[in-house]
Predict the structure.
Amino acid sequence: MIRPDINQLGAMPPFCRLDLRQLREILALSDSRHLTGGATVFDEGQPVRRFHLLMSGNIRLVRVTAEGDQIILLHIQAGQVFGIGAALGQETYHASAIAAGDCRVLSWPNALWPGFSSAYDGFAVETFRAFGARADEMSNRIVELSTQLVEQRIACALLRMIGQSGRKVAGGIEIGFPITRQNIADMTGTTLHTVSRVLSLWERDGVVKSTRCLVIVTDPHRLVVMSGAGLGTDADDPIIQAKAQALYATAAASAARKASSSSAYSAQASITV
Amino acid sequence: MIRPDINQLGAMPPFCRLDLRQLREILALSDSRHLTGGATVFDEGQPVRRFHLLMSGNIRLVRVTAEGDQIILLHIQAGQVFGIGAALGQETYHASAIAAGDCRVLSWPNALWPGFSSAYDGFAVETFRAFGARADEMSNRIVELSTQLVEQRIACALLRMIGQSGRKVAGGIEIGFPITRQNIADMTGTTLHTVSRVLSLWERDGVVKSTRCLVIVTDPHRLVVMSGAGLGTDADDPIIQAKAQALYATAAASAARKASSSSAYSAQASITV
DNA sequence: CAGCGTCGTTGTGCTGGCTCAACCTCTGGA
DNA sequence: TCCAGAGGTTGAGCCAGCACAACGACGCTG
């Protein structure tokens, strides 16, 4: 069980420049946990004692308001570090981390953070970059929430998710983790009812296909148009990139994907292959 | 002109652990600019060539949609590093930086970033922390936009601003930089009309007092109640902290503030004193 | 001091999407 | 085989806040 772990760990962005000895060292210091869907890695408000790396699966970072509204801030993909209050100077977690489907998570005590940053080449830089990407995603969310209609925001959320962990399946691109209507509502600041209505409409129009806890985008292009992103937003927007990848994947690439059917679509995730 | 600069630079969080020789070194490599209100430091989409430090004044990070809507993502205070695509692995700026009032900005070429991070004690750590605080602020914004009514969001925005750069004045706390109704609308995802109505109402009720481009909060406590934050949100929320500071500042502290009447309210800003 | 541009106020009508409500359809457990 | 509970669909009514509109006030420039 150790051998595959080492290989997997060495493929993760923060650790990809390390040698076998270092990886073994890191793994020996880590604590490993399996989680099933809905389980929490940590809760908002808890003291920050460890930092975490997602080995497989998907994690939602969630906040809950006093009124009980749940908001999904971000999705974490395999290979990403999360819960790093250690680096951010935060005493308590500012969001909860909840497994979306089955996950495997490694974690280390806070005290190791400075050592990791200084001793392991590329760790600090990669973490900073990942963080930049998250800040970007959040700023996109703010822009969407401030200016777009519900329908557009839902389109953006779907595009973002297929960009981050979409899987090619017969007839479209499937979101790579279980997701309910309520979840989509929690991402877009709307209600489960409205999401349901919109998805029903889109299904009628052949843009998506969805069953319980599963969404398949059958016409990503139309979704991009509806998202309002096609009208001049910066072209290096992750959403647009996702779209480009989804639409214009070469035959070779899609063949390769058939070979390992669970491989993810996005550039980040494909590093984990 | 160099001497005060060195002292000022040495008081900024990212550089506060450095000695005189290092500060001189850093200053010699820097480019300095004065900006008047409305001037831009950099524009969204431009290639990232330099990173920046705000010496005095306030900067808005702004994004503009294809439809022409402006969204204010964040306010940068004196002592903060910004425009750090160098660290985040971004080729172009993902937002524009616009001066809110008069500003002084130092900047350095990207190529110096790795050297700063490794050579200057505390620089990387402080930058990471500042970034964590910004991520936090953005996540708060997302929660607000997703769940709160316009009136509550405006209250939150005002509280955030007095927390970050409020100044004690006769009869209340004044926001430390010029701000229009339209600006507040750009922060809260609403329209100038709605902001105007809400502020008029609050002025009638004695919660705020405002003139052209200036807002004074006369009853922060009532504003906190209206913001909806008092109902159980995490107590270490920056908004609540700001409120606590604003409301329960000791007589000693407020005396000290009278002495240097332009000193800012927040913990971060007060480091710059 | 006239003219103009920026900023602010206030009134009116309309609508996107939320709330409330009822019902359907899976899935897993006993 | 039946039941409970989670997830999903759809209808009806209502209202917060947006769009449109018109006007007032301040401050700069020539």
Q: What stands out?
A: Chain B touches chain A at residues 44-45, 63, 65-67, 69, 71, 73, 87-92, 94-95, 117, 124-125, 128-129, 131-136, 138-139, 141-143, 145-147, 188-189, 228, 231-234, 236 (CB under 8 Å). The radius of gyration of chain B is 19 Å. Residues 2-133 of chain B form a domain with the Jelly Rolls fold (CATH 2.60.120.10).
